[in-house]
Structure formats: structure tokens, C-alpha cells
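Quick one, probably user error.
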């Protein structure tokens, strides 16, 4: 009888020992394979998946732009550029930047002894104008119905000392639903739609081509003066020279600037010799789906 009891106790002891060893082994295994919290244990399989920033392209959709008044109270600073506003108003509405003249604007101008006033905004990075095959500026423009003022869109050309580097003879302006040369002697295009896409291409030799909705409207051999060094962004220039009964706005959206290096042999080169084509047919342009 005692022999049987001893056998039973020995059996229970053996079972307990086996279970204890199993628990210990399981704990050790779990401890060994437990994920490390060390920062160096991160999965490195996606190291090459980091987004590559294309430094040849600048994009501004104005959605998040905040205007901060400058210390002279004649304009604003933003993360994307600067605004000089001695007359009129500006702001961001529904993701678009606008410049506007209000019914009291012209009274303020004449009260100061002037017959007109100019406001402007500049957005985008600075480029050396002769370091690239070309620099292409694209922007969407919307003009209020019946807009009576004048404005122009071009790069902000500057000399080494910061002086304006664009001669008046090279400028073009939106005026009364048309694009005209600065002095108004030549009408470049009539019946400009209230919503259109504007493209400006500056070439390394100093010439430029301007397009509306991908159609060439102007070729100019000299975009800037000989001492010009930089294009410091895209300049939106407004002239307020008459009274208005209601607020009139011009909206801007989807600004894109693209540089092409000297020696680049892609499709954009064909526009230099033959600019009078629809940009939608050129794969190196915004309208052609290039970027």
C-alpha cells in the first residue's frame, strides 16, 4: 500500500516539475522574442521610400496663406512672399489670393494729390535669370465681371543692388478685357475670358513668351535690362486709376514655377524656336501634363 502511495506522489512531483519547466521555457522564449523598444530597431526596409523633393519646382495654391501686416502698415508679409498695398485691399477667399479696389479707394488716392496708385504682390523664390535654360511661370487668374482697372503679371526682375530691372517697353497689361502693350499702342488679344490660365516663359538669352490658356499672345526679345541679375518671384502689379461703385477683385490660384537646367534636351526646347503652338501639346508644360 505504501509502495502505491509513494508511486503516486512521485508521479505528481514529476508532473509538477514538467509544468514548471514548461512555464519557465515559455517565459524565456517570450522574453527573447519580445519586440525591442530601442529606436535603432525600426524597420529599415523602407529607407529608400522617403519622398524626394523636386527643387526645380515651386508650387503655391494659397490655401493656407496667412497675411501679416508689416510695420509700415502699407502691406503684408507671408510665408510665400510680400505685398505692397498703398491703395486697395487684398486677402484670401476660398483658397484663392485676391487684390481688390473698393468704392472708397479712389477717393483716398485723389485726396493724397495723386491721380492713380500702384499695388503689387510678389510670390515665389529668387532665381538667377541666366543660370537656366528657361524659367516657366504658370498661374490661374479670375477677373470679376466688368473689371475696370489695369494689372500685369511678370517675374520681379531685379539688379544686383535691388533696383527694378524691367523696362516699360517689355511689359504687357490686362486692360478692359484685353491684353495690351504697356503704352496701349498694340492690342495683343481681345475678349479675354474672366477665368484663364497665364504662362510666362523667360529664356536664358533674356527673351520671353507669354500665353493665355496655352495660346501665344506675345513674344519679347528683351524681358529685362542688361544689369538685371535676379527674378525674385512672380509679380502681380495693379494700377488703380478710376472710381468704382462696387468692389472689384482679381483672384489668383495654383501658382507653379519650374526651372529647366542649361543643357536639358527635353520637349521644352522646341518652344524656343517655335513658341506659337498650343502648350497642351508640349509634355514639358503644366498644360501638357508635364508637372
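Nope, works fine. Designed sequence:
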Amino acid at each position: 500500500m505504501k509502495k502505491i502511495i509513494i508511486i503516486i506522489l512521485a508521479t505528481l512531483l514529476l508532473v509538477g516539475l514538467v509544468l514548471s519547466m514548461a512555464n519557465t521555457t515559455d517565459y524565456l522564449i517570450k522574453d527573447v522574442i519580445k519586440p525591442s523598444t530601442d529606436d535603432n530597431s525600426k524597420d529599415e526596409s523602407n529607407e529608400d521610400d522617403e519622398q524626394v523633393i523636386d527643387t526645380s519646382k515651386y508650387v503655391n495654391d494659397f490655401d493656407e496663406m496667412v497675411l501679416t501686416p508689416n510695420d509700415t502698415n502699407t502691406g503684408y508679409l507671408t510665408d510665400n512672399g510680400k505685398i505692397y498695398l498703398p491703395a486697395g485691399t487684398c486677402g484670401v477667399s476660398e483658397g484663392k489670393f485676391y487684390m481688390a479696389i473698393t468704392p472708397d479707394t479712389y477717393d483716398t488716392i485723389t485726396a493724397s494729390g495723386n491721380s492713380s496708385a500702384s499695388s503689387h504682390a510678389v510670390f515665389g523664390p529668387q532665381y538667377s535669370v541666366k543660370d537656366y535654360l528657361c524659367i516657366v511661370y504658370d498661374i490661374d487668374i479670375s477677373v470679376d465681371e466688368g473689371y475696370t482697372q489695369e494689372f500685369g503679371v511678370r517675374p520681379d526682375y531685379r539688379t544686383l543692388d535691388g533696383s527694378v530691372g524691367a523696362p516699360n517697353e517689355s511689359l504687357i497689361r490686362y486692360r478692359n478685357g484685353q491684353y495690351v502693350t504697356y503704352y496701349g499702342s498694340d492690342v495683343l488679344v481681345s475678349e479675354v475670358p474672366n477665368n484663364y490660365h497665364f504662362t510666362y516663359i523667360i529664356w536664358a538669352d533674356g527673351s520671353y513668351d507669354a500665353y493665355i490658356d496655352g495660346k501665344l499672345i506675345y513674344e519679347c526679345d528683351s524681358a529685362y535690362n542688361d544689369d538685371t541679375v535676379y527674378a525674385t518671384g512672380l509679380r502681380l502689379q495693379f494700377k488703380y486709376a478710376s472710381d468704382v461703385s462696387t468692389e472689384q477683385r482679381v483672384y489668383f490660384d495654383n501658382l507653379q514655377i519650374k526651372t529647366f537646367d542649361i543643357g536639358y534636351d527635353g520637349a521644352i526646347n522646341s518652344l524656343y524656336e517655335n513658341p506659337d503652338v498650343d502648350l497642351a501639346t508640349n509634355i514639358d508644360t503644366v498644360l501638357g501634363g508635364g508637372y
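The chain has three helices and 18 strands.
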